[in-house]
Structure prediction request, 1750 residues.
Amino acid sequence: MKYVYAFSEGNKDMRDLLGGKGANLAEMTSLGLPVPSGFTVTTEACLNYYHNNGTLSDDIIREIFEKIEELEKITNKKLGGLDNPLLVSVRSGARISMPGMMDTILNLGINDKVVESIANLTNNRRFAYDCYRRFIQMYADVVMELPKSSFEYLFEDIKKSKNIKLDTDLTDLDLLEVIKKYKEEYIRLTNTPFPEDPKVQLIEAVKAVFRSWNNDRAITYRHLNNIPDEWGTAVNVQMMVYGNMGDTSGTGVAFTRNPATGENKLFGEYLINAQGEDVVAGIRTPQDISTLKNIIPEAFEKFVNISKILEKHYKDMQDMEFTIESGKLYILQTRNGKRTAKAALKIAVDLVNEGMISKEEAIMRVEASSLDQLLHPTFDSEDLKKKESEVISKGLAASPGAATGHLYFSATDVSNAFNNGVKDIVLAREETSPEDIEGMNIARGILTVRGGMTSHAAVVARGMGTCCVSGCSDLVVDAVNKTLTTKDGKVFKEGDYISLDGSTGNVYGKEIKTVPATISGEFKTFMEYADAIAKLKVKCNADNPSDAKVGYDFGAKGIGLCRTEHMFFDQERIFNFRKMIIADTKEQREKALDNILPYQREDFKGLFRVMNGLDVTIRYLDPPLHEFLPKTDEEIKSLAKDLGVSFIDLKNKVESLKEFNPMMGHRGCRLAITYPEVAVMQTKAVIGAAIEVEKEGVVVKPEIMIPLVGDVSELKYVKNIVKEVADKLILDNNSNLKYKVGTMIELPRAALLADEIAEEAEFFSFGTNDLTQMTFGFSRDDASKFLDNYYDKKILTEDPFKTIDQNGVGKLVEVATILGKKTRSDIELGICGEHGGDSKSIEFFNKLGLDYVSCSPYRVPIARLAAAQASIKNR
Amino acid sequence: MKYVYAFSEGNKDMRDLLGGKGANLAEMTSLGLPVPSGFTVTTEACLNYYHNNGTLSDDIIREIFEKIEELEKITNKKLGGLDNPLLVSVRSGARISMPGMMDTILNLGINDKVVESIANLTNNRRFAYDCYRRFIQMYADVVMELPKSSFEYLFEDIKKSKNIKLDTDLTDLDLLEVIKKYKEEYIRLTNTPFPEDPKVQLIEAVKAVFRSWNNDRAITYRHLNNIPDEWGTAVNVQMMVYGNMGDTSGTGVAFTRNPATGENKLFGEYLINAQGEDVVAGIRTPQDISTLKNIIPEAFEKFVNISKILEKHYKDMQDMEFTIESGKLYILQTRNGKRTAKAALKIAVDLVNEGMISKEEAIMRVEASSLDQLLHPTFDSEDLKKKESEVISKGLAASPGAATGHLYFSATDVSNAFNNGVKDIVLAREETSPEDIEGMNIARGILTVRGGMTSHAAVVARGMGTCCVSGCSDLVVDAVNKTLTTKDGKVFKEGDYISLDGSTGNVYGKEIKTVPATISGEFKTFMEYADAIAKLKVKCNADNPSDAKVGYDFGAKGIGLCRTEHMFFDQERIFNFRKMIIADTKEQREKALDNILPYQREDFKGLFRVMNGLDVTIRYLDPPLHEFLPKTDEEIKSLAKDLGVSFIDLKNKVESLKEFNPMMGHRGCRLAITYPEVAVMQTKAVIGAAIEVEKEGVVVKPEIMIPLVGDVSELKYVKNIVKEVADKLILDNNSNLKYKVGTMIELPRAALLADEIAEEAEFFSFGTNDLTQMTFGFSRDDASKFLDNYYDKKILTEDPFKTIDQNGVGKLVEVATILGKKTRSDIELGICGEHGGDSKSIEFFNKLGLDYVSCSPYRVPIARLAAAQASIKNR
Prediction:
């Protein structure tokens, strides 16, 4: 086992072993680009480190020092040497980029003697001391995990005592004093002197980076992004180059195209006389990359050229880091750039048009779930017009979308507010840091005072698809007193409404109405690519015409699930429905149902009109009846009065309907078996509506779906009722209406006996929510109590309610698919329930050969893209 | 399709077509026994009748009259003829005897003219008129479904007006008056005259018998005895013979052996000058069969001879009906006799010893569930001695066993009391009738004032295995005022305690303690046959040493399920267990568990000692924690005080533990994953107990069973805890103890992934209760609300919690068996849960090749027999 690779030994396809950064540094090295030499300690070494309880094996240490020797030869410098000392950076680099989550140490190799040598060699004493004090600070933080604040406090103290504002105004002597104080502080906190031996520094730094794989924020990030904990990180050790050597030095980051819009134009920022950390941290506000042309023209030109080479080589938009050391350009990193979904679509379509990639490649370039960003509401243009004057600030349009919500000032407050039911939240921070990640994930929008387009807030928000406006430098955020003050002195307090436009950078001091997103332009083109490739159809779950319209506009090919019970909650209907529930006789029940019938028929007419020509799948009454009755004595009293029954009778009825395990109780088709009159009413409504709407010229394809069937005889019983009522209505109206009757497969028994059930069912819709509940024996309402513990202990790695459990629940879906087709080769097979909108699950369903998935209207485009990707992967 | 068979055309193997009675009449006819000639209308005709909405097809009617013509030729009599008129009986006869459940019509063919001819021919006017009035009465009841009471009232009226007590004292003229009144009543109630045409009488009678297949009591009987509704009944039409023609005539029923004890001695009763209905109805108390020898010796001798022929022919104890007409013996029916379980065992063992049947045949002769009768408690002999003076009556020992319970006087009152929680009930009736069947099924014992050993009460009670004392003629039962009065004038009221000894006929006016049954004598011999044949082992479910002892004494080969949580309910333990539940820290929990440990260890020691040398399978904590906490505020307050915590804190804790669907909530191994310290404590208790008891010389085989596993990683996690604790204890004690760790398969997912789970599990125990819940999505606590409706509508035919659903749940058991063996060929496979004691389910488990079933201690002998039968059937 080889644990350490020189950059010249690797390539871009070795990302599992070398990490993304290491693999790309190797690739660029072999492309002959100006990459500072170095080597990568592999992810295998990281796993080995954890396996050995946090120690580096002798083999790994030996290999590291062999590579240091090679590096010394190449660079003609020597680690700890005084003639031409080698300083290195030590950076983490996982398979998948986890920006800012793990640790980095720069300027390693420096000590009391080396710093003097550097001072002499560079003839820049201030630069040398600055390097040294930065290194001590980083080493104390990252390796020794000492409190950052101790060192920051010392630093500010000296600045104050010298009456200095900017770091750059500190002299070499001032910095010498800083170094002295830092070392004293280091001894005070650790009881050991600061390590002077560069080899000790290096080994400890490598271990620290390995350790940082498991710091809290990295774990949270992985959990949010579904990155396996088992991967580990690689470590890149690389000769230092300096952007902070004066005015012909600098450092920056740039994208080959605009990561927010996708525009084909170099996009980035730089700082003169700075190290990389200054750009990322967002402490100084950087310059636009285009202005570099005028300042260090040769380096700029070279950089533009290299950026083109890289994009062509990787066939994708690149995110690059560079440093200019005394006029000489170095490329420190390249990777496929993170981008907004909007940019991703434009870039993908542009690259197809530029002939660089195929449509299939384009489809695979965009993560399906990222489309979510484009499907959120934007501001209602009329409401926006009214409130244009309410702009209180304008910052950078760091992550697109529109957000309206209540103002909160810390990640903790955001979490608490969310748990207390506040769903629309805007988080305002001076600047964000990795500790804020959970709150950022909850907030609808993020507002920062400091930091640019590549600041922490901007990068993370884009990754999450959350709207972000950064760098609103005219606002004052006071996190302690929880206020935000505008330049006009207007004060906003916690809970006040604020709105952000992530596409313009505008910040509004009011609530602004939002409207749903639409699909047009590159988005539309891209979705056309997807539909041409996908095999799975995508339908939507919709219970009313307006949801149906959203789904239709987002490209749904019908309604896969209409939950009819949602139609009962309207005031007039719930009254009659409750009358039905408490009725003692069939006649009373029928009378109450007769009152609901006209309403339900109207609802169905609306759905049929929207879905003209497409399937509309209607599930019959499903939930247990007690869900429709009030719970508290107060409410029961009031209802008793309305219904004209005694409190005690109604209370008894409510009690008698209570169940120990309602999920496995009197619900689904069991209701229609006990009360066939409900199925009669629902059939009258569906078929009646269809016949009426047909007369308007609408093409109606009703599919009647019987829920919670566990045995074919249940389906047969209810189907007989449906057929009798429907066929009579059709005959009486001289109609030619065709309709289907099918069932949900949501009980393990139904899956196991799908061959028998298919004798009666013209279609199956897999209710994978319930199927997951029954197969695992997990009550969805209760399982979260212990499932977190399961994730912590790695007993489960994924939430089976989010992504289908292929081994268990998936096996039942597979069995039912095979059995169903055996009986009825043309049986229609689909998924309704949340897995229908999950990319990974869609890939699985595609492999099984299902006909469609149905998901919430807002997830339809995601599902369409996932279906196309599944189709490509399955080729 | 032939619908009607002469007796000479059938044989005993045609019982599906001809019914049991018809097949045996045919068989006896071909044996040359004196059977009155006749024919059988088949069960196919019955199905045809129902299929044609209650009409007899022309074919069937034609065939019936063809057979009437044949019968007329054989008997030289003519239906409706005046020279030598043919009268017939019309009786039901299903595949399986359903005594008293369906209808019978005697003397059919009589009318105003025929009756005179019979009077002349027999020279017995009184006899002829008696036949006629009986026929009118039965026809009105059975065919026209007129109220019995109307005719009974008229009859009593005339008796009163003539000042007559006994029916037999009515003169021919009195009877002529009865007939006249009956015919008037018939017209009054039906608006039509009584049908004089014998052909009309016959066809209507056949239809009425077919109809009686679906009367309420027949349906109830079938449901109780698992007889399919689809079978239908045959109808037997047979020349009448008369037991009521004077003092050399009579009728009786007899068994070739004693049906209560199995003693090899003719056993039966007869009445002189009576028709069969008089015996069965229990209105006159009949004579012992042995006395017939002195009264009509030739007929008796012939009958003894025939009874021997029949027993040898059928190789089983026979239940025969006979009639003697003017000294001539006729056999009207034979069938394998119903018997008590005790008799069944003795007869089976005796027949083996007599060389008549093999051990395998003996095993197949006894219905496994019937052993239940022998496993009920008998009176505690000491308590019985004390209460010997409390005998208030002595009746016939009609059905063995001992019963103590509260007195009730109607089937309805029994049902209501039972539903209100009264479990120990004795039903007292003047005499029982088929309408009482539901109440009889619930009662622990049945007491009647009238009726003999073959009365309705006696026959039904023996069938049900319920203790019965019949014919207590010195008691007065007043069903209206709900009192029972002894000959000494002592009055018992509803709810008072009473005890019955079904083996002696004693009735006690006190509660008497009962003791468990034991296995000895023929029972023991029989069970030895069974064990030699059975492949499946039988273990028992036992949570404490005394239950374990019962199981062991009943032949259990170990404990298949010890539910450890039952050990927590003792006062001291529940206190500490509750402390554990409400603890905030692991340390607090461990402290509380430490207090429970010694108790639990002692329990296990007790179990190990009882099961010396046999497996003891211990399931770790399974139920959700809220089951251990109080529910009402009052109880919570009291507990809060005891625990020294605030009411509100405890209330919040109780609330926080509530679950929507606790069956699918935080329970089973999920508890051990959240609170590993519980598994640690339980392991210390199991292994600690095993090590201590081993030192006493006991052979200990602990099997630790982890419940509710759905994924191998859950099992792995808990198993690691178990192994760590156990192996350390074993090492520390220098013990060689071996133990197994396995799991329950009770979630569909576990069954589907049994191959993975078997990597960690040394045994599987199928928890088919939970598996049935999850596979069907039926909450056992709630499903009864709608399952009755399912049975009514024939959506389900069997309770899946009683008999395993082979198609669905059984498929999962099969899959898991195959997968489990694939991974671990020697994996031990068993069933715990109620299906483990159900014969039909055992047959299925045997077929799958499982190793054992485990059931409640009292069902162990039933399971042993069922296992042997399964083994024979599967050969």
About this structure: Chain B has a mean pLDDT of 92. The longest helix of chain B spans residues 586-610.
